[in-house]
Design goal:
mainly alpha, three-stranded antiparallel β-sheet, 5 helices
């Protein structure tokens, strides 16, 4: 089942990259997807049945909208800090407790945080994610954890766990 799931994902990704539905492109994409599936399916998700649950696709779209919105807000915030004469920054590394259990979900969260300007995921150790933040707004771990991961974690959990 995981071979089929990876084939479908790879083939759809090929079609999205090329935006071409000619016969030659479909054959090339199918061959590339078969090779990808044969080489990498054993490293793919353990529970492939989750791939077949349509509600996860809905939450993934919601997650993408939230990610785009947070990136826009963070870009404006970083631009303000760069253009402000006093350059108001208060950088620091914060230790955030993770609620996510799967490695893939944790990686998605870390990548989402890194893609948001003003933050960079540094490391994941045990159940903690270390994040460099351009402006640490709170000294309370619960508060800054909510500010950093709260916007992404619930949607990633509904999508990937």
């Amino acid at each position: 089942m995981r071979y089929l799931a990876l084939f479908i994902l790879s083939f759809l990704f090929w079609l999205l990259l090329t935006l071409d539905v000619s016969v030659a492109n479909l054959i090339t994409g199918a061959v590339a997807a078969v090779i990808t599936s044969l080489l990498f399916a054993r490293y793919f998700f353990d529970r492939v049945y989750k791939f077949l649950q349509p509600v996860r696709y809905f939450w993934f779209v919601v997650y993408l909208v939230v990610l785009i919105w947070e990136c826009i807000k963070a870009n404006l915030d970083v631009a303000y800090r760069v253009l402000h004469p006093a350059m108001p920054i208060k950088p620091g590394i914060v230790k955030v407790k993770l609620e996510l259990q799967s490695d893939f979900a944790r990686t998605m969260l870390a990548n989402s945080i890194t893609m948001t300007p003003g933050t960079i995921s540094v490391d994941i150790i045990d159940d903690y994610l270390y994040v460099h933040w351009i402006y640490v707004r709170s000294e309370d771990p619960a508060e800054y954890s909510r500010q950093i991961t709260g916007r992404f974690e619930k949607f990633i959990k509904k999508t990937f766990e």
